[in-house]
Design a protein that fits this description.
The protein is α/β, with parallel strands linked by helices. The protein folds into two domains: about 210 residues, Nucleotidyltransferase, domain 5 (2-Layer Sandwich); about 40 residues, no CATH class. The protein is about 35% helix and about 15% strand. The longest helix has 17 residues.
Length: about 260
């Protein structure tokens, strides 16, 4: 369903956003490239003071590359949920007004389409609004609190959770790595606030020239072509790269006969 959302969500008129929390980032020296004379590598301090950590709350729109983020020193539910509701409400305000003439049965079918086949499907409210966007995030307990989930459903936000050990399905993981590299590579922040300032500055720089993300892209197409060139072998999951040459029965008989004559 997550792959379907990445590939077809925007085409169906459903903006697909990803949510994640990056960090914690420590106040330690971060190795990075530097211009040093040959034989004189840069020296890094071997001691540092523990002045707290920082985290980055992120909302990422892969189709446009737009990133909404906020640096915090911690992200319990009382910090994450208000920020998330505020940002999601701002995103919904910029979307077109949903149609009001849809029948309730059709609206419910649009919601159920994204939860088909799940072993544990969410409990949808009786009166559902039109589905307006999809949110992909990790399978954490704080993301499943009833008040937050019901608020999302009431706003027309469909929730898709990555499975356990499947955080790589969340594209926010990729953008967080880019922001962390731009903000902290080669730096030695002394306080958590310095980390927050650097991260938020990197987010502002990214949003000036955002890069859209595509699910799979050319690499996925190459892998698919490679799988199509393989030939499966019976009895196991083994396969071969090239198609086996078919030997006619007459040629097999000639070979066998020649070997027996020898």
């Amino acid at each position: 369903m997550i792959e379907k959302a990445y590939r077809h969500g925007e085409q169906l008129g459903l903006p697909v956003w990803c949510c994640d929390q990056a960090g914690p980032f420590q106040t330690i020296p971060d190795l990075g490239p530097s211009w040093q004379p040959v034989g004189e590598p840069v020296c890094q301090p071997h001691e540092y003071i523990r002045n707290g950590t920082a985290k980055l709350l992120t909302l990422f729109h892969p189709a446009s590359g737009q990133l909404r983020a906020k640096g915090v020193v911690s992200c319990p539910n009382r910090v994450l949920h208000p920020w998330l509701k505020q940002e999601l409400a701002a995103i919904l305000a910029d979307l077109p007004t949903p149609r009001q003439d849809l029948e309730p049965a059709r609206i419910r079918s649009q919601w159920l389409e994204w939860y088909e086949g799940l072993s544990v499907a969410p409990v949808l409210p009786a009166n559902l609004p039109p589905l307006r966007m999809l949110l992909i995030w990790d399978n954490l307990a704080g993301h499943k609190t009833p008040d937050l989930v019901q608020w999302c459903f009431e706003q027309g936000i469909g929730l898709l959770y990555t499975p356990l050990g499947g955080s790589w399905l969340n594209m926010a993981e990729s953008i967080q790595g880019i922001i962390e590299y731009r903000a902290l590579n080669g730096q030695h922040p002394a306080t958590a606030q310095e980390i927050i300032d650097d991260l938020e500055a990197a987010v502002q720089g990214w949003n000036k020239h955002p890069t859209p993300f595509v699910w799979g892209g050319k690499r996925a197409a190459r892998r698919e072509r490679a799988r199509q060139r393989q030939q499966a072998l019976a009895g196991s999951g083994a396969c071969i790269r090239r198609v086996r040459r078919h030997i006619p029965i007459t040629e097999k008989l000639k070979r066998n006969g020649g070997e027996q004559a020898k």
